[in-house]
Amino acid sequence: MKQNVHGCLPMSDNTMTANANSTHDGQLEFLVKGDHHPQNGTLLGFWIYLMSDCLIFACLFATYGVLSRSYAGGPTGMELFDLSLIAVNTSLLLVSSITYGFAMLQMQANRVKGTMFWLAVTGLLGLGFLSLELYEFHHLIHVGAGPQTSGFWTAFFALVGTHGLHVFFGIVWLVTLLFQLKKHGLIQENKRRVFCLSMFWHFLDVVWVGVFTYVYLMGVLP
């Protein structure tokens, strides 16, 4: 019997031979070399993350559905929602999805500057979306429709605010990615990051379509 590398647990001679070879300086050289990470493991892990995010938004949509008529004598969505403002906001986010598609096309053509340009445009559209959303929140709170007003407004701010928070962190991720692209170019790691952010950004667009339909359009119905 021999001790392992750290001298803690005994190991048999057969086990030592099966897992490693001894070099001349007494160090162990493992027979299995190379990358031990599974192929496309990052993309699989990111898909799992997106599925967990789906569960979060599903819970928020369900909560809003339960509390969608709990006004507690306060203002309703039909009274305060400004659909023209929300339509502009929705257009900004949907167009940002198109510009991100242009960035993906530039990446496939190995054009660093083109990829960075369209990513920057996507980030600016995302900032425009967040600015209008913050303006809407400020206006609603100013007229007495804050999260504490009723169950309806609590569910509204929880759902829409969580989506806005996701957009904010998406923009932070996008800015970080721009710095990485400027420094390292379109290396394989950066291409994978651009692809993961693409899935995240399009996911937020899909969620927003649900918010726009279920919260705003149905919210103005009598």
TrEMBL record:
Segments crossing the lipid bilayer: 43-66, 86-105, 117-135, 155-179, 200-221
Domain Heme-copper oxidase subunit III family profile: residue ranges: 39-220
Gene Ontology, cellular component aspect: plasma membrane
Compartments, as annotated in UniProt: Cell membrane
Membrane topology: Multi-pass membrane protein
Annotated GO biological process: aerobic electron transport chain
Record Pfam families: COX3
Database matches in InterPro entries: Cyt_c/ubiquinol_Oxase_su3, Cyt_c_oxidase-like_su3, Cyt_c_oxidase_su3-like_sf, Cyt_c_oxidase_su3_a-hlx, Cyt_c_ubiqinol_oxidase_su3, Ubiquinol_oxase_su3_dom
Primary location: membrane
Keywords recorded for this protein, A-Z: Cell membrane, Electron transport, Membrane, Oxidoreductase, Transmembrane, Transmembrane helix, Transport
Keyword DNA-binding: no
GO molecular function: cytochrome bo3 ubiquinol oxidase activity; cytochrome-c oxidase activity
Biological function: Cytochrome bo(3) ubiquinol terminal oxidase is the component of the aerobic respiratory chain of E.coli that predominates when cells are grown at high aeration. Has proton pump activity across the membrane in addition to electron transfer, pumping 2 protons/electron.
Family under the similarity heading: Belongs to the cytochrome c oxidase subunit 3 family.
Subunit structure: Heterooctamer of two A chains, two B chains, two C chains and two D chains.
The protein, known as: Cytochrome bo(3) ubiquinol oxidase subunit 3
